[in-house]
């Protein structure tokens, strides 16, 4: 029993201090992290300045860009259709010259229907119809 009492430490009033005691020193780790951060930041600034300093000449093909030949693809077909309908409505509902030299004009469609209803359709003469 004496060997048990010596190893347990509590029986004799002594405490057992046989654990590993080491302290983790965190200062070198923090210092390494800060230095790495500063070096990486400095490296990024170096690459940025180097890229900015490189004066890459513009390609001669890029300066002389011409649009492709007709027909062009529609970018916004709904918008194109809306514009077409607006222009057609403007033509149907307004007065304007068709051919100024020949004296041909256009009138709004509603007015043309009224005139047609009042005057009727022009009829061909019987002789012109037979030929």
Cα shape = elongated
| Low-confidence runs of at least 5 consecutive residues | 4-10
- Report the radius of gyration as a whole number of Å: 48 Å
Number of E strands: 2
Overall mean pLDDT score?
81
Main beta-sheet annotation: 2 strands, antiparallel
Distance between the termini: 145 Å
**Largest sheet, spatial ordering of strands:** 1-2
What structural class is derived from the secondary structure elements?
mainly alpha
The helicity comes to 40-55%
Strand content: 5-15%
Short description:
The chain has helices spanning 2-8, 27-53, 60-63, 77-92, 109-119, 126-130, and strands at residues 96-99, 104-106. By secondary structure, it is mostly helical.
Write structural notes for this entry.
By secondary structure, the protein is mainly α. It has a domain at 93-120. The protein has six helices and two strands; from the N terminus they run ααααββαα. It has helices at 2-8, 27-53, 60-63, 77-92, 109-119, 126-130, and strands at 96-99, 104-106. Strands 1-2 form a two-stranded antiparallel ribbon. The model is unreliable at 4-10 (pLDDT under 50).
Chain-wise SSE layout:
Blueprint: H1 2-8, H2 27-53, H3 60-63, H4 77-92, E1 96-99, E2 104-106, H5 109-119, H6 126-130
Antiparallel strand pairs: 1-2
Q: What keywords describe this structure?
A:
131 residues; mainly alpha; two-stranded antiparallel ribbon; 6 helices; elongated
């Amino acid at each position: 029993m004496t060997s048990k009492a010596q190893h347990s430490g509590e029986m004799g009033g002594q405490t057992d201090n046989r654990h590993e005691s080491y302290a983790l020193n965190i200062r070198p780790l923090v210092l390494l992290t800060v230095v790495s951060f500063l070096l990486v930041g400095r490296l990024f600034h170096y690459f940025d300045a180097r890229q900015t300093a490189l004066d890459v000449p513009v390609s001669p093909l890029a300066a002389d860009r011409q649009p492709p030949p007709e027909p062009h693809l529609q970018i916004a077909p709904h918008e194109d259709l809306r514009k077409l309908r607006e222009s057609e409505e403007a033509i149907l509902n307004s007065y304007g010259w068709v051919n100024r030299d020949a004296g041909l004009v256009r009138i709004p469609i509603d007015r043309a229907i009224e005139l047609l209803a009042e005057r009727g359709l022009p009829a061909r003469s019987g002789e012109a119809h037979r030929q």
